[in-house]
Amino acid sequence: MAEKQSLRMVLPLEQLSAFSLLLQQGVWLRAQIGCSVASLLTEQFGIAEDYIVERITTLFLDCRPIDDLETSYVSDGSTLALSSAMPGLVGTTMRRGSHLAAMRGDISGQVQQPVESGMGRIRIKLFNLVMAELGATFLTQGICLSNAELDNFLSAKDDIFWQSVAATMVGDLQIDPVSLVKYIRSADPRAEILLQVEFES
Amino acid sequence: MDKILRIDMSATGGPQQSTEKAGEFAALGGRATTSTIVAKEVPPDCHPLSAENKLVIAPGMLSGTAAAISGRISVGCKSPLTGGIKESNAGGQAAQVLARLGYAAIIIEGLPEGDDLYKIHINKDRVEISVDNSNKLLDNYPLIDKLRKEYGDKVAFMSIGTAGERLMVSASIACTDPELRPTRHCGRGGVGAVMGSKKIKAIILDDAGCTNRPPRDAERFKTANRAFVEGIRKHPVSGEGLPAYGTNVLTNVLNEAGGYPTRNFKTGQFEDASKISGESQAELEIARGGKATHGCHRGCVIQCSGIYNDKDGKFLTKQPEYETVWSHGGHCGISDLDTIATLDYWDDNIGVDTIEMGVAIGVAMEGGVIEFGDDEGAIRLVRDEVGKGTPLGRILGGGAGMTGKAFGVTRVPVVKNQALPAYDPRTVQGIGVTYATSTQGADHTAGYAVATNILKVGGDVDPLKPEGQVELSRNLQIATTAIDSTGLCLFIAFPILDQPETFQSLLDLLGGFYGIEMTGDDIVALGQKVLTLEREFNKGAGFGPEDDRLPRFFQTEKLPPHNLTFGVTDAELDQLYNWD
Asked: For residue B561, is the peptide bond before it cis, meaning its omega torsion is within 30 degrees of 0?
């Protein structure tokens, strides 16, 4: 799916939680693929190395917990989930470099050879504290979703959400919420749109 | 804690009480106390609901002191669910109050004649055991409301609901929280049925006029407690993740790992996991005026519990735990948090273990009683069948194993007849070792993430060695058994795992209180001693190596998405108890 349109919304920061389900389920991003997870997070997403070391202590690449971010590579269509440290035996076991990593040895991501590079799409899932702290950053950079997904997302929002929207623009055109929903529903449901959300604190 | 209260329910003329010196138990607590007494005094081959079984209630080594999060209470007996030894523990206020009253344990033995139902009222001056048949067939919430009118709000209650009275082997013992709600449960193993068999409906603990237990070395204890609290608060799990989202923060992570048992262990991922995650739950609780951060007892500095309100903003239940959300959620194909919270309320009210009940319902769904994903059907099964003691309700209340037999289900996730919790052992093989070999039956807390790396239990284990599974599980079970004896919440595991200075403050806390020097070796020795006693009890009850196994389907059915089976061999499992 090629990017054909963009939608920009301006919302107060307290509405970040309105995107919680979307962020947990995963959002698609355009990115340079074929790079290491470490490179993706720091160079492309601009996440500080200290933050990665201290906060993003649990990572899954295509459902596999990974221990070495330098030797784990993202491909076109990869899913990368980011989480802070988790409780419980299994939560501890899933941590990067956990001393209990043997307990999940069969599912752990293995050291890979670099994969083909180029532009592609990857899916990012954000959980718990990482979602609260990085969610706005990813949404501001822009996420890709189909018109059908966007319609589902917008249709589920209540009046409080819509009343808090400071501005909505499709491309360069300002649009009111009712017209926006009509516009999305009249578009090809499979066509992709870039959603960028600007949060005002 | 210098005394033990012994109550003989069989005594001629009605229950008799006696008090004895605590002796060796004065400096023990929790699981160490309950398992030692059960191993010493209960014939392993007795019927769990007979007069020969005993119900032992013990606060932890640090309960009733100013030590932070020291409010776990242990209940021990021969389990009517597993047939082996059982220690089941819970939060709430009971441990602190019982310890301040000076009791290292309450031992309830024998069975009374007749159908009278008793309550036990304990305060600093006396113990009163009285008949109160007006409490018959009351569930926990109405029972506690009634008892509050009689005994006031400055007490702690331990009680059974109708499941315990009906001797269902999934029955729990409820402990009230700081708001005097019966929300914290000694859930596992059917301890509520043992209390019910002894015709005890409620224990009222009143510590008016009592003070905190004084430490031997007040300054050392105070300094250690301050460092301990600081360590807990600064750790990202105990200081941030758990307070913000509760234990249900695990849903997304387990699902992402492909280890979230879904629709009775058919797959490892639930398509609606994010709808019932801790993140979604916390947002809903806050939006409805509840709380996503709340302590289950006074003195808790982690505050991983919460208040779950209904759509009208009225209290529905406490924040359901991860294992409850899983057992009633993904395991049953249910993705509505209100349904899960309603089931949690009914579990607490009737007084059943939320894991056993949820797993039993999932097995019943597999057997065709209702469809997977049937929200209303699941509520009806708990509220109207189990809650009313119908024949179907008694099958479900008999646990997942009984339910599987009743409906001809072959995929029944139990070990020693106790339902598996919310982590599939095909994805995380090490926890499968613990499920299989624990003296307690399948139990995720039997081998918790306690600091084996710091304790050096069994030396260093190479985390990359596949054969390390058994060694890791052994070490974790030993360390966890010791922590279960302190009365401290297991969630201290994370700061003491990562912060050696916090582990040292724990040793100093124990050392400062008892006036002794404790080392990691002492912790290990305690854990090994208690596990050995439990293992010997189970041997006497007829358990052998063939009982230290996972159900066969874990070895034959591949679990998507990783398509793994459980690969630890029987010979390896048999190596777990290698120190005796």
From this structure: yes
